[in-house]
Amino acid sequence: EAQVTQNPRYLITVTGKKLTVTCSQNMNHEYMSWYRQDPGLGLRQIYYSMNVEVTDKGDVPEGYKVSRKEKRNFPLILESPSPNQTSLYFCASSLSSGPAEAFFGQGTRLTVV
Amino acid sequence: GQQLNQSPQSMFIQEGEDVSMNCTSSSIFNTWLWYKQEPGEGPVLLIALYKAGELTSNGRLTAQFGITRKDSFLNISASIPSDVGIYFCAGPANAGKSTFGDGTTLTVKP
After folding, report:
1. DSSP run (H or E) holding B109
2. What is the number of other CB atoms lying within 10 angstroms of the CB of residue B77?
3. CB within 10 Å: which end of chain B, N or C, has fewer?
């Protein structure tokens, strides 16, 4: 089954404690992206990757890092989480660049206290 | 980044009614996408539009790519309770970047 898998689904952490949210896709897609969703603000793009070892900033990259060492995985790293990073995070992948026909993961709800 | 203005922000309708929502941009888009997000899930693609003036249907859903390439419309006919969710429009901006509208939250009363 074609899918994008994020882990964990829920995470509560404390300010400053480094964390990683994993994302994996099994569709051999070149393009992967991370978004955060906050009430009333829709989906805002954090980082995206058009292929292995190629990553670029989206609209809200501050406080986040990503890596794309292999095609299927695109982890999101918060080196020093802060409460304003409390949000619902989605990973997505697609065959072509941009959101065209993107498949989304089920989301990771992160709370930073 | 570029912004998409999506309206209305929310809708409360009776089962059986038709629904219409739209998305506008100050910039030209070459692709318009409509997604639906159900509670606790990630967005799922409903309809993709690739050509100005294009009208595409998916069951009770119909979407149109505006001829100015700066807007798009999504219509849902004869709504049912399972239509509830948040509907997003989206478009690719610069190569790789993407832009989403703020969403229209639909509530359907049985």
Report:
1. strand B104-109
2. 14
3. C
pLDDT digits (tens, 9 = 90+) for A20-38: 999 999 999 999 999 999 9
**Cβ neighbourhood burial of A74 (10 Å; 0-12, 13-18, 19+):** buried
> Cα A64 vs. chain centroid, distance in angstroms?
9
Percent of chain A with pLDDT over 90: 87
Asked if B83 and B39 count as a contact pair (C-beta separation under 8 A), the reply is no
Which one of A4, A48, A104 has the shortest CB-CB distance to B97? Answer: A48
Q: Of B92, B93, B102, which has the smallest distance from its Cβ to A100's Cβ?
A: B92
Please say whether the beta carbons of B91 and B29 come within 8 A. yes
